């Protein structure tokens, strides 16, 4: 008689243990942004395995790249897909347009064994001040159309529409005074009402790094999570880091619209590790680990004690060497992994692994580099360098970058190699009028890495495009010269 009871207890205890063991993963809300504006793209399946190996179960992408979606099929990973700002006008124009988009880019991938799409981001930071309102009027009509299209295919209850907002959508001297920019009050009211009626969260991107980078008066330690000598006192509340202050400014802005309890998701947050003073490995590690620990400790903020953001998507998974450097050279270096899936620093995501695991089975080109030929006079190299760096990524050479100390010749070699790898080690691409030369000795020094490209077949079309534009640039150069 005792035995069955005993085993029941054991089973109950065991299931309790299983539930308890799985709780931390179920509760932790850390995901990543997976952008693909890359010069050397890893195979999507390699990236999905990287996510799985690191137990990352939430990913945000910026479009609906079918190669990426196919790789995510059956992975169990929750996905936020995106509609680029440039498509908002068409989405807002008719339900016919949104119907096709939903059919081609969502319904075709969901279902058993498919992609677990949970959110659709309608635009990406569409209210950024620098867009001067050009996308503003499309957001709400696009959402209404998309909601109808989702309802038609019975996905409206499962997939939620959200609008990732930049933090410059709201402002205040002190967090408690937070309010949306006056010209956004009306549209934000509509959006927030819509989100609330669908049980969707407010998604915001917060970047203490940009506050620090753009403002020499910004106290450096306030950007991190280790305490500050410059706390911000707001009535009874004291803020010791920029993230909390920014988050509560949003909470106050939402409260002004009557939605102070609305769940908040951090759509992007992170720290670049190269390309600027203050963008380095130790700072990136300190920021990201501090953020993760604070979220997982469920500390919350003064206006939402004990209630951390419901999800936090780190920016970013991988470096993206083809991104515009208009914001700064750091823009290509946000990854917690380098472009080829190698962890840049130890980071505990709180998802079960104590450290990041590198990508497996990455297919590299052969171990070959292109460098400046030491026996040649390099005084005529400027145009070659300019051309190479306009196509490939040379941002680490600049002040604050990991390759800034290479010296003149090292700079040239770095530029030559970056270009050579971009051209998939095409022999001609290392010629540079005889100034370049292929070597089998890795020229990397210290933290400055001379990369070797990866061989994702889907990036060969990109290399071809670049090659065509090189020809064009050369032609153009000749024309300019002749004129
Ligand atoms: C589906 O998404 C892709 C990639 O984001 C886009 O290029 C394409 O135009 C979309 N399809 C429709 C019908 O809008
Ligand atoms: C890294 O950046 C931080 C600030 O972001 C700075 O305090 C630190 O000195 C930098 N470290 C190096 C080695 O440059
Ligand atoms: C190498 O290139 C970088 C970026 O253009 C520049 O700042 C640096 O001064 C160069 N170094 C030398 C020795 O020319």
From TrEMBL:
<dbReference type="GO" id="GO:0005975">
    <property type="term" value="P:carbohydrate metabolic process"/>
</dbReference>
<dbReference type="Pfam" id="PF07983">
    <property type="entry name" value="X8"/>
</dbReference>
<dbReference type="InterPro" id="IPR000490">
    <property type="entry name" value="Glyco_hydro_17"/>
</dbReference>
<comment type="similarity">
    <text>Belongs to the glycosyl hydrolase 17 family.</text>
</comment>
<dbReference type="InterPro" id="IPR017853">
    <property type="entry name" value="GH"/>
</dbReference>
<keyword id="KW-1015">Disulfide bond</keyword>
<dbReference type="GO" id="GO:0042973">
    <property type="term" value="F:glucan endo-1,3-beta-D-glucosidase activity"/>
</dbReference>
<keyword id="KW-0472">Membrane</keyword>
<feature type="signal peptide">
    <location>
        <begin position="1"/>
        <end position="28"/>
    </location>
</feature>
<keyword id="KW-0326">Glycosidase</keyword>
<keyword id="KW-0449">Lipoprotein</keyword>
<keyword id="KW-1003">Cell membrane</keyword>
<keyword id="KW-0611">Plant defense</keyword>
<dbReference type="InterPro" id="IPR012946">
    <property type="entry name" value="X8"/>
</dbReference>
<dbReference type="GO" id="GO:0098552">
    <property type="term" value="C:side of membrane"/>
</dbReference>
<dbReference type="GO" id="GO:0005886">
    <property type="term" value="C:plasma membrane"/>
</dbReference>
<dbReference type="Pfam" id="PF00332">
    <property type="entry name" value="Glyco_hydro_17"/>
</dbReference>
<protein>
    <recommendedName>
        <fullName>glucan endo-1,3-beta-D-glucosidase</fullName>
        <ecNumber>3.2.1.39</ecNumber>
    </recommendedName>
</protein>
<keyword id="KW-0378">Hydrolase</keyword>
<dbReference type="InterPro" id="IPR044965">
    <property type="entry name" value="Glyco_hydro_17_plant"/>
</dbReference>
<feature type="domain" description="X8">
    <location>
        <begin position="368"/>
        <end position="450"/>
    </location>
</feature>
<keyword id="KW-0325">Glycoprotein</keyword>
<keyword id="KW-0732">Signal</keyword>
<keyword id="KW-0336">GPI-anchor</keyword>
<dbReference type="GO" id="GO:0006952">
    <property type="term" value="P:defense response"/>
</dbReference>
């Amino acid at each position: 008689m005792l035995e069955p009871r005993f085993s029941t207890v054991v089973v109950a205890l065991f299931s309790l243990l299983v539930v308890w063991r799985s709780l931390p993963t179920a509760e932790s809300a850390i995901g990543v942004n997976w952008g693909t504006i890359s010069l050397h793209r890893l195979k999507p399946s390699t990236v999905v395995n990287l996510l799985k190996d690191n137990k990352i179960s939430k990913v945000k992408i910026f479009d609906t790249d079918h190669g990426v979606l196919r790789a995510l099929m059956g992975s169990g990973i929750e996905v936020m897909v995106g509609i680029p700002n440039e498509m908002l006008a068409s989405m807002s124009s008719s339900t016919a347009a949104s119907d096709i988009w939903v059919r081609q880019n969502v319904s075709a991938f969901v279902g058993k064994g498919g992609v677990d799409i949970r959110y659709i981001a309608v635009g990406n930071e569409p209210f950024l001040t620098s867009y001067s309102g050009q996308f503003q009027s499309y957001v709400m009509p696009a959402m209404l159309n998309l909601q109808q299209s989702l309802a038609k295919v019975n996905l409206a209850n499962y997939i939620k529409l959200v609008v990732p907002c930049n933090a410059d959508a709201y402002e205040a001297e002190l967090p408690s005074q937070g309010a949306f920019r006056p010209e956004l009050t009306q549209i934000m009211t509509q959006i927030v009402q819509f989100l609330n009626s669908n049980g969707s969260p407010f998604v915001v991107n917060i970047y203490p790094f940009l506050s620090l980078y753009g403002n020499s008066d910004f106290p450096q330690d306030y950007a991190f999570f280790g305490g500050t000598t410059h706390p911000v006192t707001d009535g009874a509340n004291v803020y010791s880091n920029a993230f909390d202050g920014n988050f509560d400014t949003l909470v106050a802005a939402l409260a002004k619209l009557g939605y102070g309890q609305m769940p908040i998701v951090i759509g992007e947050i992170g720290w670049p590790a190269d390309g600027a003073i203050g963008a380095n490995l130790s700072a990136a590690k300190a920021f990201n680990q501090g953020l993760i620990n604070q979220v997982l400790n469920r500390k919350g903020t003064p206006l939402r004690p004990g209630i951390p953001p419901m999800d936090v998507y780190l920016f970013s998974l991988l470096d993206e060497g083809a991104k515009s450097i208009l914001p700064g050279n750091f823009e290509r270096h946000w990854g917690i992994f380098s472009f080829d899936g190698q962890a840049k620093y130890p980071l505990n995501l709180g998802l079960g692994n104590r450290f990041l695991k590198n990508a497996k089975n990455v297919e590299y080109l052969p171990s070959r580099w292109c460098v400046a030929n030491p026996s040649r006079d390099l005084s005529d190299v400027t145009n070659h360098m300019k051309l190479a760096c306009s196509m490939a990524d040379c941002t680490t050479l600049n002040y604050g970058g990991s390759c800034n100390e290479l010296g003149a010749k090292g700079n040239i070699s770095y530029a030559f190699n970056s270009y050579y790898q971009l051209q998939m080690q095409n022999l001609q691409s290392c010629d540079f009028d005889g100034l370049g030369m292929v070597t089998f000795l890795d020229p990397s020094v210290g933290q400055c890495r001379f990369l070797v490209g990866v061989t994702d077949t889907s990036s060969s079309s990109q290399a071809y495009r670049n090659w065509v534009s090189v020809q064009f640039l050369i032609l153009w150069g000749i024309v300019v010269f002749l004129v």
